[in-house]
Amino acid sequence: MAFVLFNLAAVAALVGIDQLIKLWAVQALQPVGAMPLIPRVVELRFVLNPGMAFSLLSGKQLFLIIATSVALLAVAYGLFFRSRGKRLQQAALVLVLGGGIGNLIDRVLNGEVVDYINLLFMRFAVFNFADICVCVGVALWVLVIFLDEVHADDAASKEQ
């Protein structure tokens, strides 16, 4: 039970942080459009994204809501039923679930996702805290899969 409660609290904390930052962005950043954070490196820029990454699938909100919901249900299943005792996998899935829910809330309530981090030193899409959570979570998840394969190969070579 503690495992479930900890994971729920961690996901809720990430969603809460994401939603608070987005609320701040709407109230403080939207009126000014952009403000420098680190001059010539990073700025905070208010952008409403009607699609997913790089505005892909703009205008396809119902599809994005359904696809995201299905994916998040699969991630939640993995988190609550497959990650017990696997801390790195648990962290990865918490990050993906928290970030995914944060952006899903925006998409359902507003039809758009609030983005606000703009990297000036490279041509990249404006993104948000939830996007960072999802990307870091997916990277950790890939690492988990890679490490599992390495350990499986090591175990197989020791048996021979």
TrEMBL record:
GO CC terms of this entry: plasma membrane
Pathway participation: Protein modification; lipoprotein biosynthesis (signal peptide cleavage)
Top-level taxon in the UniProt lineage: Bacteria
Cellular location(s): Cell membrane
Catalysis: reaction(s): Release of signal peptides from bacterial membrane prolipoproteins. Hydrolyzes -Xaa-Yaa-Zaa-|-(S,diacylglyceryl)Cys-, in which Xaa is hydrophobic (preferably Leu), and Yaa (Ala or Ser) and Zaa (Gly or Ala) have small, neutral side chains
EC number: 3.4.23.36
Main location: membrane
Sorted UniProt keywords: Aspartyl protease, Cell membrane, Hydrolase, Membrane, Protease, Transmembrane, Transmembrane helix
Transmembrane segments: 62-81, 125-147
Single annotated GO MF: aspartic-type endopeptidase activity
Keyword Transferase on entry: no
Topology of the protein relative to the lipid bilayer: Multi-pass membrane protein
One GO biological process term: proteolysis
Enzyme active site: D115, D131
NCBIfam families, A to Z: lspA
Role this protein plays: This protein specifically catalyzes the removal of signal peptides from prolipoproteins.
Entry's family note: Belongs to the peptidase A8 family.
Protein's UniProt name: Lipoprotein signal peptidase
Protein source organism: Faecalibacterium prausnitzii
